[in-house]
């Protein structure tokens, strides 16, 4: 069973930086880690003039490109998070950036007191706070923004079934 961890917060709250740190830390611990990023804008990873772009322009609903080290799929429709996660079952853990309303274990990024409303989301397990001073949010563990290592250790100990070969309980 793949462990799913969401990192949620508002724009410029440090989500991508934290996801990168968690991926590095868990990968260095010997875990296979995947990521999913929600984009509120209309993105395109393809470039005009490429063969795959031409395939899509011709009407292909799904296009794949592969070589000896990488594969990408592009679909001309939205795909649910659960459908994406079904494609990632060979990962030990998947870190999801965004998708606030989904029901997986969440790390919430709090940049300002206004962001504290995010604590009402389902499955909040930990908080990363930009706010000065020691904060308490019920029984939730709170990590200051600069303690990504502490959070990563907590994630391995508390949110992952597969912890990696070098795991020692903090």
TrEMBL record:
Residues 4-130 form the Molybdopterin-guanine dinucleotide biosynthesis protein B (MobB) domain. One of its GO terms (molecular function) is GTP binding. Coiled coil: none annotated. Signal peptide: none annotated. GO terms for biological process: Mo-molybdopterin cofactor biosynthetic process. This is Molybdopterin-guanine dinucleotide biosynthesis protein B. The gene is mobB.
């Amino acid at each position: 069973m793949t462990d799913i961890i969401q990192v949620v917060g508002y724009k410029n709250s440090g989500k991508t930086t934290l996801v990168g740190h968690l991926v590095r830390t868990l990968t260095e611990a010997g875990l296979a880690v995947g990521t999913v990023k929600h984009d509120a804008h209309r993105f395109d990873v393809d470039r005009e003039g490429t063969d795959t772009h031409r395939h899509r322009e011709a009407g292909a609903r799904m296009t794949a490109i592969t070589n000896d080290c990488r594969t990408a799929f592009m679909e001309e429709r939205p795909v649910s998070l659960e459908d994406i996660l079904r494609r990632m079952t060979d990962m030990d853990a998947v870190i999801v950036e965004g998708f606030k309303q989904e029901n997986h274990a969440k790390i919430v990024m709090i940049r300002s007191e206004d962001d504290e409303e995010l604590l009402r989301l389902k499955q909040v397990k930990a908080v990363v706070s930009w706010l000065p001073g020691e904060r308490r949010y019920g029984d939730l563990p709170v990590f200051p923004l600069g303690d990504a290592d502490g959070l990563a250790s907590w994630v391995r100990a508390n949110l992952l079934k597969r912890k990696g070969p070098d795991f020692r309980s903090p």
